[in-house]
Amino acid sequence: MAKKKPLAIVVHGGADPDSDHIHSNKKAYEAGIRQAVDEGCMVLEKGGSAVDAVEAAVVSLENNPLLNAGRGSALNANGEVEMDAAIMRGNDQASGAVTLVRNIRNPISLAKAVMMNTKYRFLGDMGALEYAKKIDIRLEPSSYFITEHQFDLFSKKREEEFTSSDHIGMDQLNARMHGTVGAVALDRDGNLAAATSTGGTENKKMGRIGDSCIIGAGCYAKNSTCAISGTGDGELLIKNITAYDISALMEYKGLSLQQACEAVVLDRTDPGEGDVGVIGVDLQGNIALVFNSERMHRGWKTSAKKQGVEIYPKKQN
């Protein structure tokens, strides 16, 4: 009897500082992460592709108003929502990405459409919106994306800017406020995929682009190594080319997935520079969940009977 090939799905809901909001909504966060894992796993168990699985998982996360992607996205300095997303498949390393999109209910689905149906790899702003309209990607009014929690954060940061005694800049005020969602998967055909989506950072400069839509920084997939979705301080992930660096350490140094993730996130990243978290899966179905922040919403399920949902670091016995 032929042995079944391994399956795996891993998702994250951002690596950030802790907050009272997270503590008061802990069960709801856990339920949302679990639902995203189940949505992705359902695709895999039915024989679907890793690409379809990560899209399904991230759509679930984008629809969750507690998370900073899709509905629930952060507001920029103008009180508006600008979203980024990227997706990549490991067998041929095709990818699709969108940036600075508005009114797109699920930016990850638009990124997938760019990958699957166009000769391009990256569309932004109004060009991305026009393409979405052309292919009937679902749109929503601006009010759909603005949650009470994100508006409160926006208002608080605006107040801090105007009342600060030393008039520090908006970028400094928001240096540790961020959030992202993502997923990685391995399907029955032995293919990997990764997807990442974000609403950016609170009160960010209009037009600011983070790591989530940049292949090699916040999203990467290659069948011979791994699939990675990153989260944390976007400028830091871009600087370190975090997702690709993990793959390169596996390819050129022979490190395991766990070793490569720990090397990049824990050894090569100065914790004083900011928060970084990654989730990953390799062709054998091994998974990794590594972060240097106070917490990272994360969930996973594999055909090796491994599954779970966690927010904070595991307690050491």
UniProtKB/TrEMBL annotation:
It comes from the Bacteria. CDD domains: Asparaginase_2. It holds the Pfam family Asparaginase_2. InterPro entries: Ntn_hydrolases_N, Peptidase_T2. PANTHER family: L-ASPARAGINASE, N(4)-(BETA-N-ACETYLGLUCOSAMINYL)-L-ASPARAGINASE. This is Isoaspartyl peptidase/L-asparaginase. It comes from Pontibacter aydingkolensis.
